[in-house]
Amino acid sequence: MRTWISVQMYGKAKAALLSKAESTAVSSNKTVPHLIQNSNNCTEDTPAVSSLANSPPDGGYGWVCVIAAAVINAHSWGFNTAYGVFLAYYLSHEIFPDASRLEFAFVGSLSLTTMFLVSPIATMSTLRYGIRKTMFLGVIFETASFICASFASQIWHLFITQGIMFGLGMGFLFIPVASVVPQWFTTKRSLASGVSLSGAGLGGLVYSLVAEAMIRNIGLKWAFRVIGLLAFCVNTTCVLLIKDRGQTSKTRKVTMRIAFFKRLDFNLLVGFGFFTVLGYFILIYSLASYGVHIGLTSSQASLVSGIFNLSQAVGRPLIGYFSDAVGRIKMAGLTTFAAGVIALTVWVNSQSYRLLMFFAVADGLCAGNFWALIGPLVAEILGLEQVSQGMNLVWLSIVIPSTFSEPIALGITSTTGRYLGAQLFAGFMYVGASAFLGTLWLVNRKRGGHIT
Q1: CA 244 – CA 35 distance, rounded (Å)
Q2: Which CATH number fits the domain that encloses residue 117?
């Protein structure tokens, strides 16, 4: 009798789980083929129930991971964004008399290059050793980069510390955590991604202001040391809170699939990232120095840079929220085009503090959309289980634009003595990036795809 009751209860529980999965799929306008197909021919040993148990909870502890990821992004990307303040200081003070403007630009670019190049290694380390060990390695590299930079006496010292070492720290922190957030969500994936990446904007605001104040009050060397200690304490705490839903495997070694480049939709997505990044880092690194160029004080210039990042912190979750409702490609395309138009019409005419501040607010709401949507778009195109492999290819594809975007801008300004060429370049890169998304939308619509 007890056995019969147990079998009946098991059958009802299994049916309820399958019914819930099908209703969730219908309500979110998405299909769960591997669950629905198996529902009609399940045996008592079917994997359908375990698949349901392993499906993303669309929240729960995932929100703890989102907040921890946001704080980590604030203390990695936020520090990287604050390099615009350091750059403005380097250019206006003879810290390293023999260094050129182009060499200073390459310090910031080198950190980005290193971060994206290390992405396959970071992914492989996460798969083999787990996310926490990998991210702790990033904490060590990032902390060491600032402490060592405080002792720099020549420009090549900055190449190694504020460039390569910091890039390694960013890579081992950002790459693993970027793949964790999508594991916890389905219908709220873009919103969660936007919230986690809003931390980069908030960090950029805080540390653009903090870095300028510390340099002014306690000097460059101690500014580096204080930031290094903050990086260690805060990032260590957040790494302990991160939980990876994936399985660590010492045999799984595939971190990239070159075959993805045979797909037109993936190539169009890569094109969107390539041209967006060419414009994005010009905005990030040039706003503070441009403010000084038009006569603003260093405090005003750093505030403009900080407000730009604050607008990104607000804009990324909003973009993620609305993209879940109206379509990710549509939202990304519209905001990318808007960022380009605002740069071409407002930034080129910003000769006053108020107008430049307006530009920082308006363009900041749109300009950071790539970071909020690239993960969810890759997940939709390639599938959730192949996000890390696809993202590694995306990171590697933006190595070149991230390396040369700011050097191109400084090269143009050094040659012409004006920022107009760099402003036009940044604006047109965003407009070009939106063309790739428009093409992707048309291709997907022609194929009858579900991605909008």
Answers
A1: 23
A2: 1.20.1250.20
